Amino acid sequence: MSSMHRLSLILAMFALTWCSAATSQAQGLLWNLPEDGAVVEYAGKYTNKQERPGSNEGPLELEWDARLTIQSVGEETAEFDGLPTPCRWIEFKLVTGKPSAKGVEAAAGIDPGPHGTRIYKVLIPVSRIKGQLRDDDGLPVTFIPIVKGFRKIGQQPARPVKEKVLAFYPVLGLFANYLNLAQEGEPADLDLPNLGAIKTKQMKGTLKLQNQTSKSENVGEIWLADDLPFGWAKYHVKLSRQEKDITAPASAFAPAAEIEVEMTVVKKETTGAKSEIGEVSEETAAPAEEKPETPAEEKPATEKPEKTEKPAEEKPEAETVKTDKPAEEKPEAEPATEKSE
């Protein structure tokens, strides 16, 4: 099994666990909208530790480099809620793989293999980027709507995005929807590679889920920066999962897997953004693929958020979509683990 295929399966495992709780994305990775043409690049690493009980070799530990680019690639007035609405084309590109100076992503210094590059280009109403956790009426900002959009996985053609809500987790990152996201300490300078010190505000949130055989915890931190395009300088997430037999007591839960990711801004430009998907329409794009049915034995039991971590008044609304898990990422004929948007 290739390194990138293994990473896709690992992320899919966590995604199946978290899809009901983490796809109502709040602001996610969009906290402001800069002038059109702005582009920001982030660099970081994914690390994974898989426990292997009974193995003399100990846990399996893996690492991948990652590069995330967010850019504003056009403006358009489109119909939204029945009215002509100013919108912005925002493009996200996540490249994940092993370090390499060769291949299609040589400029990023990463070999993503055939499936390690994901590009999403979505048209978003400008008015819906609030840059805050609650709107003017005090209600939680629970999702970012999509007027239309496209996605491109690896070398496959661009396909329309069928869903109407932008979900970052886990396709574009592991920063989820933390209903208890709150500021940590006072604003402070953060030293950034290539950019120097910049004033940031650190936010932290947690999300816990548990059922009879497993429990998971997602702890996320994000450093918000008003002076940066799209509003954030760095994020760090630690995702952990514990498992036990269904008949065992709660004290039998034992570590099963852990993923950490940290992404930090390394470059910003106020002009020069250029779409990598390019000009594409729903007529010229490849057809959206249907969601394959995942065999029952591949589906973990649905986990429910712990009551103490999810206040009733801030539950995600039913209109949110499921986590994007595109089936086309699998180079081998294995059960599908990711559902398409």
Helix content: under 10%
- Terminal Cα separation, in Å? 25 Å
The coarse silhouette is: globular
Q: What string gives the helices and strands in order? A: HEEEEEEEEEEEEEE
Total count of helical runs of at least 4 residues = 1
Tally of DSSP β-strands: 14
Overall mean confidence score, pLDDT: 80
How many distinct domains? 1
Alpha-beta content class: mainly beta
Main sheet specs: 14 strands, antiparallel
| Strand percentage | 35-45%
Question: How many whole angstroms does the radius of gyration measure?
Answer: 20 Å
Stretches with pLDDT under 50, minimum 5 residues: 12-26, 291-302, 307-312, 314-341
Describe this structure in words.
The chain has one helix at residues 3-22, and strands at 39-50, 60-80, 83-99, 110-111, 117-125, 148-153, 159-160, 182-183, 188-192, 196-210, 214-224, 232-243, 254-269, 304-305. Strand 11 and strand 12 (232-243) form a beta hairpin. The model is unreliable at 12-26, 291-302, 307-312 and 314-341 (pLDDT under 50). The chain is mainly beta.
